[in-house]
Structures are given as structure tokens and as C-alpha cells.
């Protein structure tokens, strides 16, 4: 039986406080110590929390947050069902902290093929709670107080707060648009780094660069030449590369996704990040991974074992079975990694046509399932407010979801605070959606355009 220690402790405290001339309750009320850790200063806002709530409240059609509304492939769902109902009840228990053995083994086999080098599943691969936790492990493990980390703008928004939380300083370098002169639609390939500008960002304080190819939000697939330039600078300045490749299979028009880790001098300094959520259209499973040299991964393991420790066994087992299937079908037409980009390419083309048809000029993405479009012809409905600190595209996206029921994400959300007003004429759509969803979005835009022309 538990002893009730409460009354005597309370008695002691009351005695002590009354002898000091005040009660314990007034002492509590007066507590003025700051509760928030300093490293959280300025990073409390999150675009997804705000826009997901807006979409849930107002949207009829949601092309905002990046997730498919079509089902994950049958073979993956069947793998999960088998895992749940099979005889191995141990799959409901903890597994190895750094990755369920069948999953790290098959990931190592897969990446051996992709990188053309031998990998040790136990030291060169680690499973994480989605790519998000993989990124968190990288920044916590590799970035120190005072380190600089180069981030290419526009970028997946969590890189900046994660660098800051680790005590580092983000240094931004932009992709600059060069619109084609012949009146053709812009492509994500027209957004490029200026080599001299990129080189100027490297210094002895630079610890790492974050590369995201294919890139969210533009859909840019960095060319081999662009990657060679980044690699050369990394080697010259002894800089690490955090390579976020979650959209590695979502590349269109026969383009090739080049892995920077496969370039000269890069394996030893690169951590590759992947996501089963993107790879198998199952974002809610939150299974991700890192692949890289042990000299880097050993530090990521320290962060992992002292934070989440481990990710759901059952999801890891099903993803392992998914990869085993894909390994068998590698490069064959039945492979999901061959079929998914084909299907997404059709969806991309459909949305490109439909946006172009209403005058919302799309930037044709070479990869991912995102597309950025120019909202200029629709701006008259959402007049500018020179007194507002909020970028125009953000107010436009909010107005659109509230008044037209169509959710999208402003491009400024993918820029740093200092540069959020650089490009405010664009919004990002996610096209990993059923035909009916894309058609409903197109209907909204067409109706809107008609209303504009008849008014
Ligand atoms: N990196 C990028 C570029 C992303 O777009 C996302 C998801 N939107 C992530 C990482 C996080 O992936 P996960 O859902 O596996 O955590």
C-alpha cells in the first residue's frame, strides 16, 4: 500500500512559507522564470498547422498539403494485413532501435544497386520516423553552435527551424528563374543556382549544405552538372551534404535522378534521406531512413536513441516487404517505382493544361508531385494591402480557400523570413490526387475565370 505523504509535506511547506510571511499559493502565482527554451525563439509558427486547419475548415478540394488521396498500392496494404494477422506476435513488440533488421537489410541491398557500392545494413542504414525525423537527427547530430548551413531557396520549410534549434545559422542561396524567351511555359529546370553566388556562400564556418532533389516546392530535378558544382564546393571546403531525396522515384519525362553521394568524393560526406511515405504513397505510416557512411550515421544513432529510439515495428515490417517486392521487380514495367511516376506524369500534364487554360501559368515540374503556378491573372479579386506584413501569395491562398473552396500553399512559405516577399505571385498545388479531385479543382478555376470575364 502507498503511504500518503501529501498532508505532512503540505504542512511542512505551509509552516515554512508562513514563517517567511507568505503562502505557497502566492509564490506559485508570482513565478516569472521564462519557461520557453531560448532555442525555440522565433520558430513557433508552422505553415502546415495553419494551412491544414484552413483546408479542413473551408476546402471543397484540397491540393494543399502533399499527400496522395488515392490508395497506397495493394501489395503494401496486403503486406500490412499479413503482418498484423500473421503468426509472428513479436511484430507487435519493440524491434532493433536503429531499424527493424529485415528493413535495413533490404534497404542496404537496394541502395547497393543504386549507389554501386557495398553497404552494411547495420551501420550504413538507419530507419527513422519519417524523413522528418531523419532531418532532425542530421541537424542535431552534425550541426554545432556557430556552424553555418547552406539552404537552397525555395526549400521544404522545416530545414530553417531545425538548423536554428541545433544552434546553427542558416545561409540562403536562391534558385533564380530564367523565363524562356519564346513565350513557352517555364519549367522547373529554368530555376537555377548562380555558380558564383553559390560559391560565395561557402566559408570556413560552413558545416553542411542541404540539397533537396527533386525539389519541393518547384519540382526541380538537379542536373548532373549542377550536382557536380555543389559536390566540388563541398569537397573543396570540407562540407557535409544533407541530401533530402524523398521524391527520388517521382521523376518525369525520362529524366534521371542523380544521387550526389555517387559523385567523386561525396559518399564520405553525404547523408541520403528517404521516405516510405513518398515512395509508397503512404505518408501516414511515417517510415523514413538515412543511408550514409558509418562515420556520420554513428552520430545520428546517438540522437535517435536519445529521442524517439525506434519507429513502429509493424510499419517497418510491411515497408520491408514492399521493398523486397520492388527489388525483385527492379526496372520492370510492373514495378511500383516505374508505374507511379508514369501515373503522376499524366496527372501533372492534366493539371498543367487545365491551369494554362485559365491563365494561371504553371511552372512545369520535372519531378515530385507538386506544381507551382503564377496567380497574376486572378490578383484583381484579392487586392494588395501595402500595410500588411503577410506576403501577398499567402493572403491570396487564404482568400482562395475561404471563398472558392480550393486549397493550395503560397510559395512564400518556402522562403526564409528575409526573402519571403521575393516571389509572391505563386502558389503550389499537389497533384497526387484522384482524377475526380483534379477535375473538381479545374471546375472551380474555370468557373472563377468565367465569373471574372462576365463581370
Ligand atoms: N522532405 C521533403 C522535401 C518533404 O517534402 C517531406 C514531406 N512533405 C519530408 C521531407 C518529410 O517526409 P516524411 O513524411 O517521410 O516525414
Automatic annotation (TrEMBL):
- What family is it from? Belongs to the class-I pyridoxal-phosphate-dependent aminotransferase family.
Q: Which cofactor does it need?
A: pyridoxal 5'-phosphate
Gene from which this protein is expressed: KYAT1
Give the reactions, separated by semicolons, that this protein catalyses.
L-kynurenine + 2-oxoglutarate = kynurenate + L-glutamate + H2O; an S-substituted L-cysteine + H2O = a thiol + pyruvate + NH4(+)
Q: Where is the Aminotransferase class I/classII large domain?
A: 60-441
Check the record and name the Gene3D superfamilies matching this protein: Aspartate Aminotransferase, domain 1, Type I PLP-dependent aspartate aminotransferase-like (Major domain)
Question: What pathway does the annotation place this protein in?
Answer: Amino-acid degradation; L-kynurenine degradation; kynurenate from L-kynurenine: step 1/2
- Note the subunit structure: Homodimer.
Alphabetized Pfam families for the sequence: Aminotran_1_2
The record's annotation in CDD domains points to:
AAT_like
Upper lineage is: Eukaryota, Metazoa, Chordata, Craniata, Vertebrata
GO terms for cellular component: mitochondrion
Name this polypeptide is given: Kynurenine aminotransferase 1
- Source organism of the structure: Serinus canaria (Island canary)
Amino acid at each position: 500500500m502507498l503511504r500518503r505523504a501529501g498532508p505532512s509535506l503540505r504542512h511542512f511547506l505551509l509552516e515554512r512559507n508562513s514563517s517567511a510571511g507568505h503562502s505557497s499559493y502566492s509564490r506559485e502565482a508570482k513565478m516569472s522564470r521564462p519557461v520557453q527554451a531560448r532555442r525555440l525563439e522565433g520558430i513557433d509558427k508552422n505553415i502546415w498547422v495553419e494551412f491544414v486547419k484552413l483546408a479542413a475548415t473551408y476546402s471543397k478540394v484540397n491540393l494543399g498539403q502533399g499527400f496522395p488521396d488515392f490508395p497506397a498500392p495493394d501489395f503494401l496494404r496486403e503486406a500490412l494485413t499479413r503482418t498484423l494477422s500473421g503468426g509472428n506476435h513479436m511484430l507487435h513488440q519493440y524491434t532493433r532501435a536503429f531499424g527493424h533488421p529485415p528493413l535495413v537489410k533490404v534497404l542496404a541491398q537496394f541502395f547497393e544497386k543504386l549507389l554501386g557500392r557495398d553497404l552494411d545494413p547495420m551501420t550504413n542504414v538507419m530507419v527513422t520516423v519519417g524523413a522528418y525525423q531523419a532531418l532532425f537527427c542530421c541537424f542535431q547530430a552534425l550541426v554545432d553552435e556557430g556552424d553555418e548551413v547552406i539552404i537552397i531557396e525555395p526549400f521544404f520549410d522545416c530545414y530553417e527551424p531545425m538548423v536554428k534549434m541545433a544552434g546553427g545559422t542558416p545561409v540562403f542561396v536562391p534558385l533564380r528563374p530564367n523565363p524562356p524567351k519564346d513565350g513557352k511555359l517555364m519549367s522547373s529546370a529554368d530555376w537555377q543556382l548562380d555558380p558564383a553566388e553559390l560559391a560565395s556562400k561557402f566559408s570556413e564556418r560552413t558545416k553542411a549544405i542541404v540539397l533537396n532533389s527533386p525539389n519541393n516546392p518547384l519540382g526541380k530535378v538537379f542536373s548532373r552538372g549542377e550536382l557536380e558544382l555543389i559536390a566540388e564546393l563541398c569537397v573543396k571546403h570540407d562540407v557535409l551534404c544533407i541530401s533530402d531525396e524523398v521524391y527520388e522515384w517521382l521523376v518525369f519525362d525520362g529524366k534521371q535522378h542523380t544521387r550526389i553521394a555517387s559523385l567523386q568524393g561525396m559518399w564520405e560526406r553525404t547523408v541520403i534521406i528517404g521516405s516510405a511515405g513518398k515512395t509508397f504513397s503512404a505518408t501516414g505510416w511515417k517510415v523514413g531512413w538515412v543511408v550514409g557512411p558509418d562515420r556520420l550515421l554513428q552520430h545520428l544513432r546517438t540522437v535517435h536513441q536519445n529521442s524517439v529510439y525506434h519507429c513502429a515495428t509493424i510499419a517497418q515490417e510491411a515497408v520491408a516487404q514492399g521493398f523486397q517486392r520492388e527489388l525483385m521487380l527492379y526496372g520492370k514495367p510492373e514495378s511500383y517505382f516505374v508505374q507511379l511516376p508514369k501515373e503522376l506524369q499524366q496527372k501533372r500534364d492534366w493539371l498543367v493544361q487545365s491551369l494554362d487554360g485559365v491563365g494561371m501559368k504553371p511552372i512545369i515540374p520535372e519531378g515530385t508531385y507538386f506544381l507551382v503556378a503564377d496567380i497574376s491573372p486572378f490578383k484583381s479579386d484579392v487586392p494588395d494591402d501595402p500595410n500588411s506584413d503577410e506576403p501577398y501569395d499567402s493572403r491570396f491562398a487564404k482568400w482562395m480557400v475561404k471563398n472558392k473552396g480550393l486549397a493550395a500553399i503560397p510559395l512564400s512559405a518556402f522562403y526564409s523570413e528575409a526573402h519571403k516577399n521575393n516571389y509572391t505571385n505563386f502558389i503550389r498545388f499537389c497533384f497526387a490526387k484522384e482524377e475526380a479531385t483534379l477535375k473538381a479543382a479545374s471546375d472551380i478555376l474555370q468557373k472563377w475565370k468565367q465569373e471574372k470575364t462576365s463581370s
